[in-house]
Amino acid sequence: MPAPNYRGLSHPYLEAKLPTLDHADGMGQFVRAGCARCKTIHLYRPADIKTVVGGDMHVFRLREKLRCEQCGKRDEMVVEFKTFLGNEMVGLVIRELVEIRTVKKPIWREKRL
């Protein structure tokens, strides 16, 4: 596994070998995302993350897409795929996607008549 400060800029052949959200979803894994600064950790289903980020990507590209909800930093995010055994699944709290809301924001400009 590469270092946590890896930015995902390697040869495309090597990046194609990294596990993606579809692979994790097929294997029953979860996405564990946490902020190294705030020490908050959340578990997500890979299909929900794929819906939010808009496509299938590997774990190192997810670091660029996710943001900490408390401090708002992207640089401090640590993302990994996590597999749990049967006895670890009891009482496991995961975040589930309910809906995606889009915010309409008007943009104005001044025009002289």
Automatic annotation (TrEMBL):
This is Uncharacterized protein. It comes from Ciceribacter sichuanensis. The lineage of its organism: Bacteria, Pseudomonadati, Pseudomonadota, Alphaproteobacteria, Hyphomicrobiales.
